[in-house]
Structure formats: C-alpha cells, structure tokens
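Sequence dictates fold. Below is an illustrative record:

_____
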Amino acid sequence: MTSAAVEILGLGLGILGWVGVIVACGLPMWQVSAFIGGNIVVAQTIWEGLWMSCAVQSTGQMQCKVYDSILALPAEVQAGRALTVIVALLGLVALLVTVVGAQCTNCIRPGKMKSRIVIAGGAIYILCGVLVLIPLCWFANIVISDFYDPSVPSSKKREMGAALYIGWAATALLLFGGCLICCCSCSQRDETSFPVKYSAPRRPTSNGEYDKKNYV
C-alpha cells in the first residue's frame, strides 16, 4: 500500500509538471522589458515568448502579434518551440504508460512486466524534465548575458519572465515525480523477485501409507 501511494504521488507530480510545461509553452512572458532607466514610468512593456510578442500599454491595453516567419526566428526560439512541443507529447505518453502499469489499475497482471512498464513511464517523465530544461537555461543565459553586456542598448535589454520560472518549477516536478515512480517500482520488483512456492501436502492412501508418488 505504501509503494502504491508513492507511485500515485509521483504520477500526480508528473501530471502537474506536464501541465506546467504546457502553460509555460503558451505564455508570452519568456522575456520581458528591463526597467533600468532613470525614469521607471514607461509607456509600454514588451513581452516576448515562443509564439508571439505582446506590448502592454500603461493604460492596461495589450496587443499581441504572432511571429510571421518561423525560419527568421532566433535559434533559441526555434529550439524552445520544438522541445516544449515534444515534451508536451511525451508527457501524454508517459501518463498513459504509467497508468497502464500502475498498481491501482488492472490493465496488466502484476509481475515483472508491469513493473517494467511503470519504470518506463517514470523514465519518460525524467526525460521530459531534462528536455524542457534545455530551452529554459538557454533563454536565461541569453537574457543574463545581454543584460550585463554594455554594447546592448538599454531598450533591447530584457529580464527573465514568469514563463521561465513556471518552466523550472515544472521541470522539478517532472524530475521528482519520475524518480518517485521509478524508485517505488524498483522496490516492488525486488520484493516480488523471489516468490514463495508452496508444495501440496502429501495425502495418505487408503491403507494409511503415503503414496510413493509424493516422494518423486
């Protein structure tokens, strides 16, 4: 029962991380305007994401525009698009695989195969966390490098947006949830690797003696 509860906890964390990746992928706040000038009152704030850029006016109005050309985008944006979409699809696969092999479901009979399927689901969750971490760290490195680069104009400097922090939280959930799933499945596999075998009791014959076939 304890391993099943840990497995469900890991699955729940993996689902939360998967949803967080989807939210971070859709948000346009991967990079935001940096307020480094003397006057903090600005006319608009710029948000830049994987799919669109938005301009938020001081009056509260927001205008967003989807990027026109995919090939004209920077390499980090193209890589971020590809990896986040791949992670979103892999997260769905991990969910289905883990549910099929979970202890609380009867899709497959308990045994080594069931444990291996759950381990595969946890490994896919861990892979999702590693893949989504690549564009997040790439964006963060570019933002930090440009911010401290004196050759970059102040109007072009950006800060890390909320989508990066959501993505990092989702990465932690994916990695932790995948590790929990793999660990509890491995422990369950070790417990069932040496099954106890019971032999049938010997029955006496009609004359009161034991049948000789019981000794063969």
The domain at 24-30+70-190 is CATH 1.20.140.150 (Butyryl-CoA Dehydrogenase, subunit A; domain 3). The radius of gyration is 27 Å. DSSP finds four helices and five strands in the chain.
